[in-house]
Write a structure and sequence with these properties.
disordered C terminus, globular, TIM Barrel, alpha/beta, three-stranded parallel beta sheet
């Protein structure tokens, strides 16, 4: 929990990882891709404050102690949601798997939610693996990486018939939230495989699912905003927006936030640190303190007040994942009145 000027913020980090990109995990013959991938991530870390930068060797495989300290003890996070990215073409045991995440979540069940994933190109075997992971981890969400390499394939679309089969099964299994990486490319993946147009198809056809577009389609911010404003079940995941832009590109960050607030709205924006690329501490503190630069350029954008920041930092994700929120962190209505917990209403 983060407190500033008498306001308490319940923080849900809805996009973070516990990866293993160490050389011991590199697939023989694919070392250049495994190495290039994590080096690209490491380069992105340089967009954060200098004092948070890590040497590559440490960055490749963060320890449990470091993660717990940087995310929870120092990072103000109350609950974190693991998002899986397998990359089995390059990493022998996977880059960031449900199993690896689940091991840590088992030790700290009050701190984590584990999302699994699926790849429609894996066919029936992939469906069985997906079903087994849902049974094991009881997730409310799944992470999809449409640009991931799989054999000779270098990507898939949410609108593909085989992906629809998995989305239908996800609904049947109780999955509510589909997190989709649609943002800056990472070498050696193809930029076009991150295009957001397939989200439009799937969101219309699967209105029982929420589609959280991680990284808000950057650099296609306009495409994402005009699509998301018409789809009530499409959300803006702010991972990379905060970590990649707030410190290094503050004026561009203000423009992106302004567009998101204007078109998508503060009720459909979720905080994600993208840990271990960036630590959550400076992102949480920075968003709480943030306002537009003093310039006429930003006059036609909506303002973001304390209530809006509370929603983005945790309350929106808590609603998506049925995470209880302390009463003192809820939205303040009027003269200090607070939203009443539904359980209290039922007892009245």
């Amino acid at each position: 929990m983060y407190e500033k000027n008498g306001e308490k913020y319940f923080v849900v980090d809805s996009h973070m990882h516990y990866w293993d990109a160490s050389p011991e995990n590199w697939v023989q013959g694919a070392e250049q891709y495994a190495k290039g991938w994590i080096e690209c991530f490491h380069a992105y870390q340089s967009l954060g404050p200098a004092e948070t930068h890590q040497p590559l060797e440490e960055f490749q495989k963060v320890s449990e102690e470091q993660l717990m300290r940087e995310v929870f003890d120092e990072g103000h996070v109350d609950v974190a949601i693991f998002q899986s990215t397998y990359l089995r073409e390059w990493y022998k045991d996977g880059f960031n798997t449900s199993e690896r995440n689940g091991e840590l979540a088992t030790k700290h069940p009050e701190k984590f939610r584990v999302n699994t994933r699926f790849d429609p190109r894996d066919g029936d075997a992939g469906m069985r693996e997906f079903e087994a992971n849902v049974e094991r981890y009881q997730p409310m969400g799944a992470k999809l990486y449409t640009a991931e390499w799989n054999g000779d394939s270098r990507g898939f679309k949410l609108s593909d018939p085989e992906c629809y089969r998995f989305l239908e099964r996800a609904q049947e299994l109780g999955i509510k939230n589909i997190h989709v990486h649609k943002g800056p490319t990472i070498w050696p993946l193809d930029k076009d495989a991150f295009d957001v147009s397939d989200v439009d198809h799937a969101a219309t056809d699967f209105q029982g699912l929420n589609f959280i577009v991680e990284h808000v389609g950057l650099p296609r911010i306009e495409d994402f905003c005009f699509m998301a404003t018409q789809e009530p079940n499409v959300y803006a995941g702010l991972s990379v927006v905060l970590g990649g832009l707030m410190h290094a590109r503050p004026r561009f960050f203000a423009k992106v936030m302004g567009e998101l607030l204007f078109w998508v709205g503060e009720d459909k924006m979720t905080f994600g640190s993208d840990y271990n690329i960036w630590e959550p501490k400076w992102q949480v503190e920075g968003l709480v303190d943030w306002d537009y630069p003093d310039s006429a350029e930003y006059e036609d954008y909506p303002r973001l007040d304390t209530n809006g920041k509370k929603k983005i930092l945790g309350l929106n994700a808590a609603k998506l994942y049925d995470i209880p929120v302390p009463v003192e962190c809820e939205i303040r209505e009027g003269e200090g009145a607070q939203l009443v917990d539904e359980r209290e209403v039922a007892q009245a």
